[in-house]
């Protein structure tokens, strides 16, 4: 989770869903499903916060000129950085909470917070709340899958999931299409807002 919350693109689903699955079976450290699930959530949250603090202080100490010049080496091209800063400037500190629940920008939003020298207490609070909700959701999904397949291994469950995907690919495709269209609409609104603010300055 620390890797997922830093610059490196690594899906948190790969870690937390299997953790929830194993927690239901009591196969983690403590042997009790609820205790294992709580431990998985706590570890996931600590990992997320570690990665978020890394991005925050990385941006705070090195600054915008460095990130614009070398950011692409950290999977952070100037266009992505500018977009994240634009969202942060428009909506303020609360973006460090909301964006922790959104794919793609979840890892990046800590960078403009660092560049803006956001109060570290508020950053910790909002980031912790957002990351905590996300970790709980993923762990709960894995926990629920574990309850559905009590006598199956995680590998067997994955194979069963592939069969489900094969027989329901049309609905899955439509769902993805809706998500993509919603993303494009929001992105277009942000870009239009940015252009409208820049026009008076250019005039």
Let me know the average pLDDT.
76
Percentage beta strand: under 5%
Q: How does the major sheet shape up?
A: none
Name the overall outline.
globular
> Which structural class best describes the helix and strand composition?
mainly alpha
Distance between the termini: 46 Å
- Provide the gyration radius in Å: 19 Å
What count of domains describes the coordinates? 2
Stretches with pLDDT under 50, minimum 5 residues: 1-7
- Helix fraction bin: over 70%
Order of helices and strands: HHHHHHHHH
How many H/I helices? 9
Q: How many β-strand runs?
A: 0
Describe this structure in words.
Helix content is about 75%, strand content about 0%. The chain contains nine helices and no strands. Mean pLDDT is about 75; it is low at about 1-5. The chain has helices spanning about 1-5, 15-25, 35-70, 80-90, 95-100, 110-115, 120-150, 155-165, 170-200. The chain has about 200 residues and is mainly α. The chain folds into two domains: about 1-150, no CATH class; about 170-203. Helix 3 packs across helix 7 (about 120-150).
Briefly characterize the structure.
With 203 residues, the protein is mainly α. The protein contains 9 helices and no strands.
Any key phrases for this structure?
disordered N terminus, mainly alpha, single chain, 9 helices, 76% helix, 203 residues, 2 domains
Q: What is the strand and helix layout of this fold?
A:
Elements: H1 2-5, H2 13-24, H3 33-70, H4 78-91, H5 95-98, H6 110-115, H7 120-148, H8 154-167, H9 169-202
């Amino acid at each position: 989770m620390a890797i997922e919350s830093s610059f490196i693109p690594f899906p948190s689903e790969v870690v937390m869903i299997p953790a929830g699955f194993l927690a239901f079976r009591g196969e983690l450290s403590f042997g009790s499903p609820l205790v294992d699930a709580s431990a998985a959530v706590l570890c996931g949250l600590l990992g997320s916060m570690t990665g978020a603090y890394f991005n925050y202080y990385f941006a705070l100490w090195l600054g915008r000129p460095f990130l614009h010049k070398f950011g692409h080496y950290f999977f952070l091209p100037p266009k992505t950085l500018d977009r994240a800063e634009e969202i942060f400037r428009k909506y303020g500190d609360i973006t460090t909470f909301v964006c922790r629940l959104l794919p793609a920008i979840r890892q990046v939003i800590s960078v403009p917070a660092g560049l803006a020298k956001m109060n570290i207490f508020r950053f910790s609070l909002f980031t912790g709340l957002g990351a905590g909700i996300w970790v709980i959701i993923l762990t709960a999904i894995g926990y629920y899958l574990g309850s559905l397949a009590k006598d199956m291994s995680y590998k067997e469950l994955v194979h069963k999931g592939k069969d489900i995907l094969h027989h329901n690919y049309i609905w899955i495709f439509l769902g993805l299409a809706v998500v993509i269209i919603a993303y494009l609409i929001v992105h277009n609104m942000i870009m239009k807002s940015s252009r409208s603010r820049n026009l008076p300055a250019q005039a």
